[in-house]
Amino acid sequence: MKEIVDELKIVTSSISDLKDLLSQRIDGVEKVLSDRFHALETAAQVFDDWKPKIEASVDDLRVEIGAMRKTVNRVMMEASSASAAGIFAKPGSAPTFPAAEFPADGPDGHHVESSNRVHGFGSIDP
């Protein structure tokens, strides 16, 4: 019987040691989780502080883009009424008289052969 009681004392003391060890382990896990949770709360607070600043900046950008859009539309309307042909004015005749008897207003058109021969004095055509 004495041996059984001694065995029970050993088991009881080992259970007590195990209980202390488990308690220490649980306390350690709780501390790690608490530290991580605190870090997450801090990060969330940073984003909560940052969000209104970004939203205000986006609103300012929307207002500026709206103003720019109105300005561009007004400029385009004024430009389209001023010259319907394009950006540049229609070119006129050359500032000096050409050597040939025809005015030098530019290209003859699409798929038209340009002639380098003079139609006038000194022509060798019959």
Mean pLDDT: 77
- What is the general shape? rod-shaped
Strand content: under 5%
Order of helices and strands: H
Q: Mind telling me the C-alpha Rg?
A: 47 Å
Q: What is the terminal-to-terminal distance? A: 150 Å
Largest sheet: number of strands, sense, barrel closure? none
Poorly predicted ranges (pLDDT <50, ≥5 residues)? Answer: none
- Percent helix, as a range, is 55-70%
Which structural class fits the helix and strand makeup? mainly alpha
User: Number of DSSP helices?
Assistant: 1
Number of strands: 0
Q: How would you describe what is shown here?
A:
By secondary structure, the protein is mainly alpha-helical. Helix content is 64%, strand content 0%. The chain is built from 1 helix and no strands. The chain has one helix at 2-82. The longest helix has 81 residues, at 2-82. The mean pLDDT is 77.
Short summary of the structure?
The chain is an all-alpha fold and about 130 residues long. It has one helix spanning about 1-80. The chain is about 65% helix and about 0% strand.
Map the helices and strands:
Elements: H1 2-82
